[in-house]
Design goal:
- With about 250 residues, the chain is an alpha/beta fold.
- It is about 40% helix and about 30% strand.
- It is built from nine helices and ten strands.
- The structure holds adenine.
- The site of adenine has 13 residues, from strand 5, strand 9, strand 10 and helix 8.
- One of its GO terms (molecular function) is adenosylhomocysteine nucleosidase activity.
Length: about 250
């Protein structure tokens, strides 16, 4: 039967979801607290992994092996890379790449050695279906039901949009234009950057479990990133996470 594993990297990305759970039991494994419960009648296990590819990998492995989840959802924030992507927009992953994997000249840059895979594809039908419901949530008169207009103005969120494309992951927080430009030069199709998605994607691929990754843009992956990120996750990411996961569970 269906059990959805829901991960974020930090408490601010999953707290809104955990507060919506009923019939909760808490289980601690490997220093992480897994919240098992019901979300709108669906069995889920919710956890924050902590930041980075290793943290995310061990957490999703635990969801798969200990909790036997049948589907995996990662929700959280990301830094905007592509010029079309703005703070407050949502990116639904079509596929994910680990931009910091490089075993060349043994294997082509970015390919995971011995797996022979560079891009990991998310569950396409569900991802595409969610584009419409996320777009309705982002309509400004809907968004302002959940978030004060004054908070939205702080981040210049006016007409947020949903995008579908490539997400890049690696163990770096982007806080300079130099980091951002280097990624654009190597991988011009990337929409946003974060630190867990492609690791979760690789583990799910290897276990044959369908997954989706949905990221809200918290910053522009440049000089202002750390300030923007910190205020965004304090105020807004909780609401986006809760409302997006509601759409996922209902679909
Ligand atoms: N997640 C959110 N913002 C990020 C950034 N600027 N770099 C890496 N991961 C992020």
């Amino acid at each position: 039967s269906k059990v959805i594993g829901i991960l974020g990297a930090i408490p601010e990305e999953v707290n809104g979801i955990i507060h919506s759970l009923t019939n909760v039991t808490e289980v601690v494994i490997g220093g992480r607290k897994y919240y098992k419960g019901l979300l709108y009648g669906v069995n889920v296990v919710v956890v924050y992994s902590r930041i980075g590819k290793v943290a995310a990998s061990v957490t999703v492995s635990t969801l798969l092996l200990h909790f036997n989840v049948s589907n995996v959802v990662f929700v959280g924030v990301a830094g905007g890379i592509h010029a079309d992507v703005r703070v407050g927009d949502v990116v639904v992953a079509k596929d994910l790449i680990q931009y910091d994997m490089d075993a060349s000249p043994l294997r082509p840059k970015f390919e995971i050695p011995l797996l022979g895979q560079t891009y990991f594809h998310s569950e396409e039908a569900l991802s595409r279906k969610l584009l419409a419901s996320i777009e309705s949530f982002l309509a400004i008169d809907c968004l302002t039901k959940h978030i004060e207009p004054v908070e939205l103005r702080k981040f210049n969120i006016e007409a947020p949009r949903v995008h579908y494309g490539t997400i890049a992951s690696g163990d770096q927080f982007f806080s300079t234009n130099k980091q951002k430009q280097a990624l654009i030069d190597e991988l011009p199709n990337v929409l946003c950057v974060e630190m867990e998605g492609a690791a979760v994607a690789q583990v799910c691929y290897e276990f044959g479990v369908p997954f989706i990754v949905i990221r809200t843009i918290s910053d522009n992956a440049n000089q202002e990133a750390s300030f923007s990120f910190q205020s965004f996750v304090q105020i807004i990411s909780l609401v986006y996470g809760r409302e997006i996961v509601k759409e996922i569970v209902k679909s």
